[in-house]
């Protein structure tokens, strides 16, 4: 595997150190600030709204400047957001703002990191290793839950927890700026001429009928994935209490970390299986299976704790399986000249879905009995499965066309 793949994957894990900070401390801060489940869900979604608003600018800049510079600056933004949260967040609105800044920083590391990779790989390398990079999102998630789970288990105050992961995130851009080397891609940089030009370029991606099914499918995928990741820690805490089985914070965090690690293999296997085959049709089947997985997981909550944990584990594997395939489809279906804009729209649509996942689960909890109700958690998880159902429908509808 080329060095640039190792480098971008390693830096991605560092850049995601703060990803689980809100989910891990959600219950504590919800009680401290007297938040409803919907409000807690909106704070979860704020990360992705920050991502959405920053993406047109930060990802669009990769068509005009070397992506490693965008990455380095964005790693600083994300770290600053975590520091501000630790020092100044004291309720719904302040937390909403600070957590959105963290998301904005992530907007300038995740897809620009993929651009760094694309600019330094040949065509064959792109198809082979894009899915590896996207799969390492799972390792980043796992590492974040692992670190923060340990901090919470030892009763470290939430402020200090945020500051510690901010220090990890602060250094994520340094290896990239120092060691990523020159790009090998021959495409010329387009002179930056303002945010309006970037927005126009992103708008033009809507005309790309080959890439759009993957982009819409990614929206359904991230709605489901990030709603799942925002609330699963709280869900397992509820199940543990309901079935009178003590599970420590560190056990739950490590369980979620292991779930994140399995996502790496699930995404890579799913993406590799699609190479040379009818990619949209296979992704459609993956989405349909995942939708039924959400229903089975919801039913498992009514039986016993250990069966529920098993299906929560399996459900994550099903959610992640099409992740790399969807992003690879967006990368391959278009020219290198507008790839930054294409990935920007991929991120905007995708993370708009991610922004809605948390609030939808929160709304389900508030509407069907609260966070101590099996019915409300079951409804919330089935609602998440609708994301995969959308992805399945869109890709199935376009499977007859010659998409890569």
**Low-confidence residue ranges:** none
N→C terminal distance: 23 Å
- Backbone structural class: mainly alpha
- What is the overall number of helices? 17
The rounded Rg comes to: 20 Å
The SSE string, one letter per element, is: HHHHHHHHHHHHHHHHH
How much of the sequence is in beta strands?
under 5%
> Which percent range fits the helix content?
over 70%
* Gross geometry: globular
Number of strands: 0
The residue-averaged pLDDT reads 88
What oligomeric arrangement do these chains adopt? single chain
The largest pleated sheet is described as: none
Write up what this structure looks like:
With 404 residues, the chain is mainly alpha-helical. The chain contains 17 helices and no strands. It starts with a helix and ends in a 7-residue tail after the last helix.
Q: Any descriptors?
A:
404 residues; mainly alpha; 17 helices; globular
